[in-house]
Request: fold
Amino acid sequence: VKALHSAKKCLEIIYRYESDIIATANKFHLPSDMIRAVLYRELLCVGYEDLYADLLVMEYYLFKGMYSSRKDSSTGLAQIFASTAIKAEKIYYNANTTTDTWTMWLNLQIPSKNIYYCGLVLAAEAKNLGYHNIQPNEYEKIKNVFTRYNGAESYGDAVLSNYKQFRKNSGKYRILQAV
Reply:
């Protein structure tokens, strides 16, 4: 499986949406590096098979299931399933959402909304774990939230490593932004 983005390109994409990342992190009381770490991992792992899955979803809804039976796929910058975003809304806001899968999937194509839902999914998973106002150095809690984001322990480990790198290099990044 060939990744579509180099590490450098992933960082460029993340930095392009810095204001959205900070706003989302503030809204959900998360360290902004949590969102950056997830975005980095997901962007780095996106391959052609992900684009193909997205095409199958579009075919399903646009052609009423004539060519595809795929109703959802992980999509957008943070590779979120529409069903996961809908579930996160219900958990975080303690409310029933009327958003259907297709509408949510389309919303997830918009980078700022995808980043928002990345934060919402992280916040919902933190809530499920009983965590409130996660602090930047609470690595075990952060790893647990990352693991829940994807469902795999190895994912939690990998994204925590990315998180620590973003924390370590955040000062350097801020200098690069000013140039």
